[in-house]
Amino acid sequence: MAAPIAVAIDAPDIETAARWASAVAPHVSTVKVGLELYLRYGPDVITTIRGGNRVSLFLDLKLHDIPATVSGAARAVARLRPSLLTVHAAGGADMIRAAVDAAPETRIAAVTVLTSLDDAALERTGVRGPASDAVRRLAVLAVEAGARALVCSPHEVASLRAEVGPDITMITPGVRPAGADRGDQARVATPEEALAAGADLLVVGRPITRAADPGAAAASIAAALRRAGAGTGTRSV
Ligand SMILES: O=c1ccn([C@@H]2O[C@H](COP(=O)(O)O)[C@@H](O)[C@H]2O)c(=O)[nH]1
Q: Which residues bind substrate (predicted)?
């Protein structure tokens, strides 16, 4: 069973993206395409990345607009059949439901509070209280609006799981192997910690894609997760 890792293919061009995807695909369950590639290449990049790779596609577009616009956008990308599509939970219940209704075959994942924000940075946006409170509030709102997956940091997974139950897919960026550069991520944990907290899918980008050998880096994190018990439960993404 492939490791529950979504590799963030945040590449500057389609050739690099294809190379990274082929290198990591034997070791992970999922590849994630985000704004950088999708805004430049559109659906072509999805076709290229899928290629001969047997991986799920996670389309991380973080839609955030009025409900009618998000509905149209979600419908437009649903035909690409991503397994996951992100929206910002802060767009509100009607917006989230619009995405859910427009893409019934895709699991809509609500981004709670970006993992690049710590409590102080969040407060500067006007949101009072610790990030964990905002994450909880947004997660409950999103699930009530029909989202079947949540994006949060590894720090919030365990308490959110208790709040939203076992059927919601918990996705955690902000994952850094011990000693890795955290870059612009603020709320981080190791892959083993994220798994132990109950994450279903770990998003890992630069620690893999910026390694000298992305395939080996993905294999190494996958092996660490297997040693920590990944794949022994009943949940899959
Ligand atoms: O809260 C969030 C939501 C999405 N992301 C995305 O995950 C990857 C993380 O990449 P790294 O290189 O491992 O930092 C990136 O594509 C983000 O857009 C996130 O980091 N935090």
A: 10, 32, 60-69, 115, 176, 185, 205-206
